[in-house]
Specification:
Blueprint: E1 8-12, H1 18-24, E2 30-34, H2 37-45, E3 49-52, E4 67-72, H3 91-102, H4 108-113, H5 125-133, E5 137-142, H6 147-159, E6 163-170, E7 181-188, E8 200-201, E9 215-216, H7 220-224, H8 254-261, H9 264-267, H10 296-302, H11 315-324, H12 328-335, H13 339-346
Parallel strand pairs: 1-2, 1-4, 2-3, 4-5, 8-9
Antiparallel strand pairs: 5-7, 6-7
Helix pairs in contact: 1-12, 3-6, 10-11
């Protein structure tokens, strides 16, 4: 496995290792900066090099001249639908911070004191590292609500000579058994950049003269092995409540039928899971699925982590790490067009 010798991949806000696992699938390793001690313990147990540090306070000098790529997934809570979304009130301050950094002015402290959520400006940290280190390539990820900030960063990077693509991808299109939508930014100073080609589709269609059809989305039931190697899927009945009712599904009323259609016992066989959050049993925040009580390890499978990935901590801590991670399969797809530049540097 390539360690990039003196030229490394730097993973900011590295979490438990979603990006690291994506790199590992391509034969590469990273150095992760992560503050949470439990996530650091997970990374160490998984064999990923980690520096426990506050990304916003850590100096860039130790990485000068040694960095092939910069990866960044700043905490999404300020902009996430699952949080208070105070980051939306801070959006203008975030844009100002990006402009100031591009002009060589570090106004993070002053702007941070004016933010409704002190974590909002963390979204600008990857740009700070990129401006200081000028890596060959960059890969950033966030919730879709932060896409305007990625568009701003893209303009700045283009001015520095980077080719850039940014947009919103659905993880299910890359073999992740979850319809997780995420904004991504990919940039390179050495090659053209394009969005990763999908490998799966909701409706793949037939093979054509131009090649075989894409694979169908991986369903939640398929990923969890419900009814096969693991537990069976929940029974769908027509009572219209969480416990169902005495009548079989086919005899239920229209209202009860629609309620039961939201039950994972019905749709899990046909589609990926909703977005996995930090409370694993609450799939996508939908009340109709909150009674699933999925284990963290099942959430990890829906995030496309390899079986047996050594998440550390209590059940709640493991669930939070899983829900906040980048799906490794999505990471691999996003990085595949960028890492050849890193491999050339390592050669």
């Amino acid at each position: 496995m390539t360690a990039l010798a003196g030229r490394r991949v730097l993973d900011l806000f590295a979490g438990p290792g979603g990006w690291s696992e994506g790199l590992r699938a391509l034969g590469l390793r990273d150095v992760g900066l992560e503050l949470d001690p439990v996530a650091c313990a997970t990374r160490t147990a998984a064999g990923h090099t980690t520096i426990r540090a506050d990304v916003a306070a850590y100096p860039t000098a130790p990485f000068q001249g040694k960095t092939a790529g910069v990866i960044g997934s700043a905490p999404c809570q300020p902009f996430s639908m699952a949080g208070r979304r105070a980051g939306h009130d801070d959006m203008d301050l975030c844009h100002q911070c990006l402009d100031d950094l591009a002009r060589g002015q570090d106004t993070r402290t002053a702007l941070g004191s004016a933010c409704a959520d002190p974590r909002s400006l963390l979204v600008a940290e990857p740009l700070r590292y990129v401006l200081a280190l000028r890596p060959e390539w960059v890969a950033l990820e966030q919730v879709p609500a932060a896409a305007p900030l990625f568009a701003h960063i893209a303009d700045i990077l283009r001015g520095l000579g980077y080719a850039v693509w940014h947009g919103v991808l659905n993880a299910a299109d890359y073999g992740v058994p979850q319809t997780r939508r995420r904004a991504l930014l990919l940039a390179s100073r050495t090659r053209p950049v394009a969005p990763p080609e999908a490998t799966h589709a909701k409706d793949p269609g037939p093979d054509t003269l131009f090649g075989p059809a894409l694979k169908p989305w991986v369903t939640m039931a398929e990923a969890l092995g419900w009814g096969y190697t693991r537990r069976p899927a929940p029974t769908v009945t027509g009572g219209g409540t969480r416990s169902g009712g005495p009548e079989p599904f086919g005899n239920s009323s229209r209202k009860a039928m629609h309620a039961a259609m939201d039950d994972p016992g019905h749709w899990a066989w046909k589609r990926p899971a909703y977005t996995i959050s930090g409370t694993i049993g609450h799939v996508g925040g939908k009340a109709a699925t909150s009674h699933l009580n999925l284990e963290p390890e099942e959430g990890a499978r829906l995030q496309s982590f390899r079986d047996g990935y050594p998440f550390q901590g209590t059940k709640g801590q493991r669930s939070l790490q899983v829900g906040n991670a980048v799906p490794p399969r999505l990471a691999t797809a996003a990085l595949r067009s960028l890492v050849p530049a890193a491999l050339e540097v390592a050669a």
